[in-house]
Amino acid sequence: MSNPGPFPPNQPPYGGDPRHWWRFQRDQQRQAWRAQQQILRAQRRALRRPSIVGPILLIAIGIVSLLLVTGRLPADGFWGWYGHWWPVLLIVLGVAALIEWFLDARSGTASPRSFGGYIGLVVLLLLLGTIAGHWSSDWAPFQWQTDSGDDFFSAFQGPQHTRDMEPVTASVPAAAMLQVQIQDPRGDVQIATGDTNQISVISHATVYGGSDDNASKLFVTHRPRIVVTGSAATILVDPADNLRSNLTITLPRTSSVQVNTAHGDVAITGITGSVDATVSHGDFQAASIGGAVHEHLVGKGGSVSAHQIDGDFSADGLGDDVTLSDIRGQVRLNGDFTGDIHLERVAQAVHFHSTRTDLSLDGGLPGDLSMDLDSLHATQTLGALRLTTRSKDIELNQVFGPVDITDSDGTVDLSLAGQFPVQVRNNKGDIELSLPPGFGYQVSGETHNGDIISDFPLTIAGDQNKSVHGQIGKGGAAIQLTTTNADLHLTRGPAAPPRPALPAPAPAAPNAPHLRLPHGQAADSATQ
User: Which of 150, 224, 384, 450 is buried deepest, with most CB atoms within 10 A?
Assistant: First the structure.
């Protein structure tokens, strides 16, 4: 077909076909609307006035960056402060925008301000604030970098200057039950005892960044100080963000200690008084302590170790591994611990509480107990045992006392060492109960979608919902077992072993009160 060529001069733009008239009208309206939008947009841009917030923000960032690069502002201290206070940035920006709106309203300017391209910069700063805030509270596996002598942030501040300071000493009253308070904002604290009535403090200090002269001034001005008032003494290191002071302290043997450190480990050995420690981002060790020991964990990742404690031991907060042995008092653990927990030879009650597990053992632990994220194993437990947890495989051997267990998504394997009542509630996990010969029990159990296997002549009934009932021997202690989508096993166990002996209780130390933490101090993964 040949090309018809252009329209005749007098022909309408839509080709003269009335069917195309509506398309022509639509195109004309769209073009007019777009042109009007462009005109309005150009008018708004012409009327906008720039906001002063963007330039102020850039100047502030430049000043802070210059101070960080030149070492005038410690990087770790700044990021710690910024991670805590970054929401103030939103308040400042909001106040600045509100002031500009008020000024525009007074001048009669109705057009909005032009914020330029700094909105993306604000989003970046808020993201950095969130990361900095979570660095110290949630990223426990990486905190060793910020809490060790080779500080991660301080590595960008310049050279390290180290010095072993001259010992600082002070005499204390003879035969006094000395109360010692130790404040070391950043550094390890190691405490041992001596046979004299004297306190000795040796500091191994490290300064990050700056010149040799500035480091020398810091070494002098932040030297440890000892203040003695009667039977009380205070050992204090003034805080500095770019200073780490590791202390080796020698105290009289009859001391009680309260120690507070923000970034560092604490180790205490040999005192006959009590210990109260607040440890932030560090490990805690105590051995051969004559009184009670209490530790408060701040931050995450710190491990706890205590051995040969004559009084009670307690720890609370957020931590990693816990290892305790030869505790002649009670043990109380209250917090979330992401590592392994191991207890041996505890003379009195054991209590453990976390967001996932509640454990109470009233009579003591002459054997051992180990717990991690997936399992709990204990041998030789005395007294009533109450346990509530989830997603753990539980194995308890030589249990001397009543048992009450609630679990889910894990097996429960229980071996009694006598005639004690048992109640186990499980969900989606097998229950295996071993009973020693020569004792009587009254058994009641049920399972849904599971089997029941018994070494004893008990009545087993049901199909999908099975139950077991009956009496073993002459009856006596009640046994109640319940599970779903799992099996019940009742087996004949070995003869009951003799009841194990507990460590003898320690004599009360005279004039050794347990020190309490200051008010207002509280703690901030998977937990036990």
Answer: 224
Whole-number Å distance between alpha carbons of 160 and 154: 9
Contact 400, 417 (CB under 8 A): yes
Instruction: Give CA–CA dist 479/442, Å, rounded.
Output: 6
Sorted by where each begins, the domain ranges of the chain are 53-138
CA 340 to chain centroid, in Å, comes to 14
DSSP 8-class letter at 14: T
Q: Is 13 helix (H, G, I), strand (E, B) or coil?
A: coil
Instruction: Report the Cα 236 to chain-centroid distance in Å.
Output: 27
Q: At what angle do helices 118-138 and 75-85 cross, to 10 degrees?
A: 100
The two structure tokens encoding residue 49 = 């006035």
- Give the residue ranges of DSSP H helices in 72-211: 75-85, 87-107, 118-138, 144-147
- The answer for residues whose C-beta is within 8 angstroms of residue 276's C-beta and 6 or more apart is 257, 258, 259, 294, 514, 515, 516, 517
CA 74-79-84 angle, to 5 degrees, is 130
What is the spatial distance between Cα 186 and Cα 183, in angstroms, rounded to a whole number?
Answer: 9
Residue-wise DSSP of 340-351: -EEEEEESS-EE
Tell me how long the chain is.
528
Residues 6 or more apart in contact with residue 195 via CB below 8 angstroms:
253
Scanning 86-117, the segments in alpha helix (DSSP H) are 87-107
Per-residue pLDDT of the chain (528 residues; tens, 9 = 90+): 444 444 445 555 555 566 666 666 777 777 777 777 776 666 555 555 666 666 777 777 778 777 766 656 655 566 666 766 777 777 777 777 777 777 767 766 555 555 555 666 667 766 766 665 555 444 433 333 344 434 444 444 557 888 888 889 998 887 667 898 988 888 899 999 988 889 999 989 888 766 777 777 777 777 888 999 888 999 988 877 778 889 999 999 999 999 988 888 999 999 999 999 999 888 999 999 999 999 998 876 689 999 999 999 999 998 889 999 999 999 999 998 888 999 999 999 999 999 899 999 999 999 999 999 899 999 999 999 999 999 999 999 999 999 999 999 999 999 999 999 999 999 999 999 999 999 999 999 999 999 999 999 999 999 899 999 999 999 999 999 999 999 999 999 999 999 998 876 555 444 433 333 333 333 334 556
How many angstroms separate the CA atoms of 528 and 322, rounded?
11
> Which pTM was predicted?
0.68
